[in-house]
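Practice problem: predict the structure.
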Amino acid sequence: MKFILTALIIVLPLHAAEQVFFSFDDHNIAWQHNLKLTLQTVTKHPGNPVLRRGPPGAPDHGHAILYGTVIKTGGTFRMWYLGMIETENKAGQPPGWWRPMCYAESKDGVTWKKPELGLVEFNGSTKNNICLIEGEPYSMTRVNDFLSVLHEANDPDPAKRYKCAYIAHMPFDEVKGGRSKIGPNERRWGAMICATSADGLKWKCVGDRPANAGGERFEVSSLYRFGDFYYSTGQLISPWSWRPDGSDIGRDMLAYRSPDFVTWSKAKALAFARPGQLANPPVKGQQMHMGAGLWNRGNVMVGLHGMWQDAETAPPKGESWNLGVRVDLGLVISNDGVHFREPVPSFKVVPRGKEGEWDDVAILQGHAFVNEGDKTMIWYSHWDTGSKLKNMEIGLATLRRDGFGHLSRKVEGNDAHFVTGTFTAKEIALNVDGITPEAALSVQLLDPLDRPLDGYQATVTQNGLHQTINWPKPLPADKKLALRLNFPANSAAKVYAVYLNN
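Answer:
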């Protein structure tokens, strides 16, 4: 079956200063009357997995997983992912604590090519798709777990326009700066390593020590810039992390920050834990897995987190301790880049597959979101928790563009409305569906004290992914505004997002 991404060519306006108020953002759309939020489940590509592991002898023969990133630059989708050489993982870690940073490209996000980069010798040849990482000590260059790539095209230093953070398991005697006394004295340290690159293929480690040297171990899983800081979020578990009252916690998400991508905070923030982890008593077996795969939309961070559930029974002796663990992917959002929340706790945006399907055990999130035409494209991986590496490859899922969820009327026969937080804008557009000729939406601009502004009423009669509101006159320049959107009592409209452009 040939997959057709869209039957309609859609050209959407590009707005460098665009803000997005998503329907599930209860900070920017806090004030609601008679409305309900409906989150959406993705549609999985019928040809999944779209990026498969390589043949025997390839650096990704054991698995190809999106503990990584997908971005689109120009007309090319670029993917950084982790390979594994071995086809079984009985020890829980690959030999040499190394999963190569592999690279792939695509023109449509569906069919991927693994270029021969010629950078790293592997099995006696450089004809492979392994990216080069240089640094001292050598153990810093050996990616072991999650890889997050950030592209800053406007960085004044061309050699640093690509940045990444990843986990390397370094021997303690190779870690400069000592270690905290928090947690047991392991023989290796899950260290956060940062690197920069001009092209995303040849990398150099930042400094000669882990970014979290002198602190605790940290299983980093993301890298982004929000406001004045770079942030890295990732996973920890007790005894390295704990609930606010000091009691033990399962896997939760912590955040570090840096003003310059060189010096990182020793202090960290509790960025996210699932509601059941913070209940008293905690929900048994509920954890969150490997931080979150995140998408920076300028004014807000959105993403997917791993909804980990322990196995119902302990695995048989000799089997992987993870056997029976199940993971689906849920939605998170943050308005400050530090504190994340679930709009609807435990809702499965990307559910694992049904028994017998390729992604039926547990799934892994990446930093892999691209708006393309009328779709939001999301890539993810399968995780065989039994350590047999079965079907550990990369799949594609799609939603309506920015269609993670929508607001609609809750009680039939009653009107509804919402009022946004304040903003400045030259243009306002809606991502909306379900408007009918008999039930148009009406909009009104307000001042910061909820008072209507004379001459700023309009009617929205058309559906669209980016339906511009036509006001009677230009919006007031550089003035704080709010938007009231009214659903009539017979409306079937679904509002997915409000776009504010300057």
